[in-house]
Write a structure and sequence with these properties.
CATH topology of the largest domain in chain A: Heat Shock Protein 90
Number of domains of chain A: 5
Oligomer: heterodimer
CATH class of the largest domain in chain A: Alpha Beta
Strand order of the largest sheet of chain B: 2-1-3-4-5
CATH superfamily of the largest domain in chain A: Histidine kinase-like ATPase, C-terminal domain
CATH architecture of chain B: 3-Layer(aba) Sandwich
CATH class of chain B: Alpha Beta
Largest interface: A-B, 50 and 53 residues
Distance between the termini of chain A: 46 Å
Strand content of chain A: 15-25%
Radius of gyration of chain B: 13 Å
Number of strands of chain A: 22
Radius of gyration of chain A: 38 Å
Strand order of the largest sheet of chain A: 14-18-19-17-16-15
Largest sheet of chain A: 6 strands, mixed
Shape of chain A: elongated
CATH superfamily of chain B: Response regulator
Number of helices of chain A: 23
Helix content of chain A: 40-55%
Structural class of chain A: alpha+beta
Number of strands of chain B: 5
CATH architecture of the largest domain in chain A: 2-Layer Sandwich
Number of domains of chain B: 1
Order of helices and strands of chain B: EHEHEHEHEH
Distance between the termini of chain B: 15 Å
Number of helices of chain B: 5
Largest sheet of chain B: 5 strands, parallel
Chain lengths: ~700, ~120
């Protein structure tokens, strides 16, 4: 595992942490503010901070530090959880997300000055008072004792500190170190021997071992320190290096630094050795403290809060590289095909109804279902980004919108989930910008001044249906119509159903916003949304009621690896037409077919003329269908070129198929979206309907595509 | 030939676990990993290690809880335990010591310092 991979793990973890924190804050906003929720938010931010430090993202680390500091105050009940605080924390979280994104894409970190100031102010507001009070009492108490000690000893502190910090200069004369472990030196699994060895490795040699304090055997306690050592140290060794060795255990050792053996002896004989040593130690602490200022207030209560084991049962999970998972799913796809081939073979032998085969069938289905579930993720991960979007929209449009979410546990393929974000964002921006009226207009119509956006997801007939509904003004059919006429999308006398008018908003270059706003209405958008959804093998439809709202309904496939297709026969080839494109199929009547130019025909389908594209020309079949009326036309819907009629010999089947990319096995072929293996074991090409119809329209001679 | 020092790291963050694994194995240590205090205790119930390195903030059972638990059993009284902390303040170190930690590693750590700290406490 290299550094890059670890970094990737970190960013995945950041996403999880951000989601956990957001979920926690949402719960807080809803009014539940128990210790575990706060703790979870704290942990999420803390974990990002840890990684940010490890990977050197300074801006991210600084921001998370301030964020975490305030969260620690909240955790310790120093800061009450109020609506305003939660809102600010949410803003801070949004900013944190931007920080993470900036770190990931190596771009400039966001401007966090305002929210950073808030975090610092809020922290200082609570910590300043108690900290100061404490400092005061501490100062007065300690000062008094120090002053008393100074008086008693009559020894100026400064000379001592200068003494103990005496750095060897020039030729670096050797110096002496006396160390004596105390009772605690062996506790907590510590081993003084290791430290002695380390001192020796640094460049010290044992000069003297003091045995005077070894007790008689009866009084001997092996856990206590009875020995003292004096080391002769190489001049190159710095005092700080030695202090560093005792970093973990400075309180459990007496350390005396001296320029000569006599110097050590004087200090040892001094009855106040211990106190002078304490001071040396406290000086060391002081310098440590200066290097890394601790802005945190003492937080003893945190221990009580964190040691309580969380009552929630964590789900067991393991991380698997996505590539490995895809290989498994690929393998399952092959298994399904092999099983279908076996069934066919056995059917040819009239033994298709054996018990073992149906058992195999059940098992394969189970395995396939479970394998698909690996890639499935709850749609909640997409929905969870919506609150932030609404907050941003609320500040840019001034419209406050409530969010209702249903079915967030509905699962979809990971790839679909990842590519769903963009169209969903666009639809929500549109809903808030165009759909939902401003507060005054809503009041005038007797509506709740706060708009409501409802997101729901459910599984229906092998597809996932996502509904994005607003309770706004609905689509103004007359306005859409006028706009479409102005844009030349339809003619003035066109008779359109309500549904057809609604669908005009998906036309390229259509926008009804009277004024183009910063949020939406740039004239690109809805057509792109439809394109995105189509690329995912889905469909989008609109339901709108003027005055009471609009719903966009997305129907998406559960997975991208398996699609529904229509298997058609064309010449001597079996081809697959993805069902997502198919509108209807019919047998053409001679009266509906009109010739056009050389070798082209149009088909009249209820008043609309569609180009007829014989598929056998594409496959280069040796025999041409003499009369189109003997075949079947499949009416397909395309993205850019409207509808077209594909002429085939017959429709043989409709079934699910596993898509095999041609790129990986052969090379990309225009007009072919991929290949699949049919039940009879034969490879069949999947028709790229969009490309096919488009090239037919552009070149006039669409055989080029073949 | 010495047997490699066996270390159990306890951290809920996958990236931190990966970093620890990388740094420690690079220095020839034998590394086992747990995701929180509860998992660490379960693993330690049936396994032996030379050293435990634990994070503080973790779900289910945090680092302090884990140390307390370990120090409470005779088997682990003398077990060296290092704490991973993001704060290098004295107060934090004292707290770690009071909880029963043998030493600490300040995050972000570099592999050398980590190895030094490990050698300083492993016996």
């Amino acid at each position: 595992m290299d550094a890059n991979e670890i970094q990737n793990i970190f960013f995945v973890e950041c996403e999880e942490s951000l989601e956990a924190a957001e979920a926690g804050l949402d719960v807080c906003k809803a009014g539940t503010q128990d210790a575990e929720t706060i703790n979870a938010i704290f942990r999420a931010v803390h974990s990002i901070k840890g990684g940010a430090g490890a990977f050197g993202y300074a801006a991210l680390q600084t921001f998370t530090h301030s964020f975490e500091t305030l969260l620690a105050d909240v955790r310790e009940d120093k800061v009450p959880i109020e609506a305003d605080l939660v809102n600010q924390l949410l803003i801070a979280l949004d900013c944190l997300r931007d920080h993470v994104d900036a770190a990931r894409s190596a771009t400039v970190p966001p401007d966090d000055s305002a929210i950073l100031q808030y975090l610092k102010d809020a922290h200082e507001a609570v910590s300043a008072a108690p900290k100061k009070a404490q400092a005061d009492t501490k100062a007065s108490g300690d000062d008094d004792i120090d002053a008393l000690l100074d008086d008693l000893l009559g020894e100026p502190e400064k000379t001592k500190s200068a003494d103990s910090h005496d750095e060897p200069a020039g030729a670096a004369p050797e110096w002496f170190l006396h160390l004596r472990p105390h009772a605690g030196a062996m506790s907590n699994g510590a081993e003084p021997l290791l430290l002695l060895r380390e001192v020796s490795d640094l460049g010290g040699s044992c000069h003297d071992c003091d045995l005077k304090q070894v007790p008689v055997l009866d009084e001997f306690d092996p856990d206590l320190g009875h020995l003292g050592w004096t080391f002769r140290m190489d001049g190159k060794v710095k005092h700080d290096d030695v202090k560093d060795v005792f970093d973990f255990a400075q309180e459990d050792y007496t350390l005396i630094f001296g320029s000569s053996e006599d110097d050590i002896k004087t200090k040892l004989d001094d009855p106040q050795t211990a106190s002078s040593d304490d001071e040396a130690a406290s000086e060391a602490k002081q310098t440590d403290g200066d290097k890394q200022p601790d802005t945190k207030a003492p937080n003893a209560p945190a221990a009580a809060a964190t040691t309580a084991p969380a009552p929630t049962v964590a789900t067991q999970s393991i991380r698997i590289d996505l590539g490995k998972l895809d290989k498994l799913i690929d393998g399952v796809g092959e298994l399904v095909i092999a099983q279908a081939m076996l069934t066919q073979r056995l059917a040819d032998q009239d033994i298709a109804h054996i018990e073992e085969l149906s058992l195999l069938d059940t098992l394969v289905r189970d395995v396939q279902e479970h394998a698909m579930a690996f890639r499935a993720q709850p749609i909640g991960s997409v929905f969870s980004r919506v609150p932030r979007l609404l907050r941003e929209l609320s500040s840019s449009t001034g419209k406050h919108v409530k969010l209702k979410v249903q079915g967030e546990s509905t699962e979809l393929d990971k790839t679909v989930i990842e590519r769903l974000g963009e169209p969903l964002t666009h639809l929500i921006r549109n809903a808030v910008d165009h759909g939902i009226e401003d507060a005054e207009e809503r009041r005038a119509q007797g509506k709740d001044p706060e708009g409501t956006l409802t997101l729901s997801a459910e599984q229906k007939a092998g597809r996932v249906v996502i509904n994005i509904s607003d309770d706004g003004r609905g689509i103004n059919a007359e306005k859409v119509r006028k706009k479409a006429i102005a844009n030349g999308l339809i003619t003035e006398d066109a008779q359109l159903s309500e549904e057809e008018i609604n669908n005009l908003v998906f036309a390229p270059g259509f926008s009804t916003a009277e004024q183009v706003s910063s949020v939406s209405g740039r004239g690109v958008g809805m057509d792109v949304v439809r394109q995105n959804v189509k690329e995912l093998g889905g469909r989008i439809t609109i339901e709108s009621t003027p005055g009471s709202g609009t719903s966009f309904i997305l129907a998406l496939p559960l997975t991208l690896a398996i699609s529904d297709g229509m298997i058609v026969q064309s010449g001597d080839q079996s081809l697959v037409i993805p069902l997502a494109h198919v509108v209807e199929s019919l047998r053409p009547l001679p009266a509906d077919l009109k010739g056009m130019g050389y070798d082209r025909q149009m088909l009249n389908v209820r008043g609309h003329f569609l180009p007829v594209l014989p598929l056998d020309q594409l496959t280069g079949a040796s025999t041409r269908m003499a009369d189109p009326c003997e075949g079947v036309v499949v009416i397909v819907e395309t993205e850019r070129c409207g509808q077209a009629a594909l002429l085939v010999d017959t429709i043989t089947d409709q079934r699910q198929f596993v898509i095999k990319s041609l790129d990986t096995h052969y090379h990309a072929v225009d007009g072919v979206a991929g290949a699949t293996i049919l039940g009879n074991g034969r490879v069949s090409l999947i028709v790229d309907v969009d490309h096919l119809v488009q090239s037919a329209g552009h070149t006039g001679d669409w055989q080029v595509a073949a | 030939m010495h047997k490699a020092t066996r270390i159990l790291t306890v951290d809920d963050s996958p990236s931190m676990r990966a970093l620890l694994m990388q740094a420690l194995t690079a220095h020839g240590f034998d590394v086992e990993q747990a995701e929180d205090g509860v998992e660490a205790l379960e693993w330690l119930a049936t396994n032996e290690v030379d050293l435990v390195i634990t994070d503080i903030n973790m779900p289910r059972m945090d680092g302090f809880g884990l140390i307390e638990n370990l120090r409470g059993s005779a088997r682990h009284t003398d077990r060296p335990i290092l704490v991973l902390t993001t704060e290098s303040s004295d107060e934090k170190k004292k707290r770690a010591r009071d909880a029963g930690a043998t030493g600490w590693i300040v995050k972000p750590f570099d592999a050398e310092k980590l190895a030094t700290a490990v050698r300083r406490v492993t016996h």
